Amino acid sequence: MNPPPVAAVSLLGVDPTTHRRHRLHAMTRVYPETNCYADVLIELLNARGDEPLAALGCTVRGDFEGDQFTFFKPPLGELDILFGVDIHEMQAYRPCPEQAAEQLRAGRTLIVEVDSFYLPDTAATTYRLEHAKTSVVIESVDVRGEHLRYFHNSGLYDLYGDDFRGVFRLGREVDPGVLPPYIELVRFDSGPGVARDHLRPTAREFLGRHLACRPNTNPFERFGVQLAEQLPTLIAGGAAEYHAYAFATLRMAGSAFEVASSYVEWLFFDAEKPTAEAFDRIVKGCKALSFKLARRRPFDPAPAVSALAADWDEAQDRLDAAAH
Fold it and tell me: Residue 3: its pLDDT value, please?
């Protein structure tokens, strides 16, 4: 029989008032947030004292996938090798707070898909306004006190009371047609990981694999064709349609390649500064093009897309030279 829940149990003992965000989440960046899954892992690794950039070489292979750019995630195999972090699906057969408390006591944690309607840190977007799926990493939970401390997007936050019951769907009937949340268990005991002075050499090995898996044709050229087809509909549509499209395309690409720029700087220092600068031009180009789309007025996107495509070609050519 499982032990009864106890007062707050924590993974790392970090506090929102003292937690320092990783530099990938600095407010000076064009995209201070990337996507919910990558962001929470960045901050979890950062809070442990690990360097998440070592596992983000995957961003150099971002592709246009027909109607969106790649929703990148740090590869689980690389997290295991680099940091001894093992992530795998967990069976959600008990109330999530109880499962979280048990795993935290064992030195593990959970990645949980939740409704951002109940996340106070989204006050400027979805909190108590809109139901949207997102991922959080649980840092601590107090089942009796109805308190959750969680990593989400670029930071560490607290929620209590009604939000606690809402985010975990407690104390109310749940439509049997609504599936339980997807939960992943995060373990830190699969090995010692790579020594700090071997992080870059190991990341260089991973980079070679990512370069071999890049798209065979320029993703921005393919995006340009699709954008030209979609532009009349985007102009005629409402703000909600624009935001959904821009998030899945330009924001996803811009945030990924901004991480790629930081990754190149971390991996090669100043030796590949021109490569990082090419990625930075992609980031700024994505942002500028998203502003043009936001006006929802007719314009010719071809020059902007051509510049993005040229910068992608340059960055990839330079990476090829650096990796060989």
Answer: 45
The answer to whether 12 touches 108, Cβ cutoff 8 Å, is: no
- Condensed to tens digits (0 to 9), the pLDDT of residues 122-170 reads 999 999 999 999 999 999 999 999 999 999 999 999 999 999 999 999 9
For the chain, what is the HEC assignment? CCCCCCCCEECCCCCCCCCCCCHHHCCCCCCCCCCHHHHHHHHHHHHHCCCHHHHCHHHHHCCECCCCECCCCCCHHHHHHHHCCEEEEECCCCCHHHHHHHHHHCCCEEEEEEEHHHCHHHCCCCCCCCCCEEEEEEEEEECCCCEEEEEECCEEEEEEHHHHHHHCCCCCCCCCCCCCCCEEEEECCCCCCCCHHHHHHHHHHHHHHHHHCCCCCCHHHHHHHHHHHHHHHHHHCCHHHHHHHHHHHHHHHHHHHHHHHHHHHHHHHHHHHHHHHHHHHHHHHHHHHHHHHHHCCCCCCHHHHHHHHHHHHHHHHHHHHHHC
Does domain 9-187 match CATH 3.90.70? yes
Distance of CA 145 to the CA centre of its chain: 30
- Torsion, Cα 116 112 190 43, to 10 degrees, reads 10
What is the pLDDT at residue 4?
A: 44
Show me where the domains of the chain are located.
9-187, 218-323
Residues 293 and 234: beta-carbon distance below 8 Å: yes
pLDDT grade, residue 177 (50/70/90)?
Answer: confident
Distance, CA of 71 to CA of 252 (rounded, Å): 7
Q: Name residue, tokens 């991996």.
A: 267
Cα 300 to Cα 298: distance, rounded to the nearest angstrom: 7
pTM of the predicted structure, to 2 decimals: 0.94
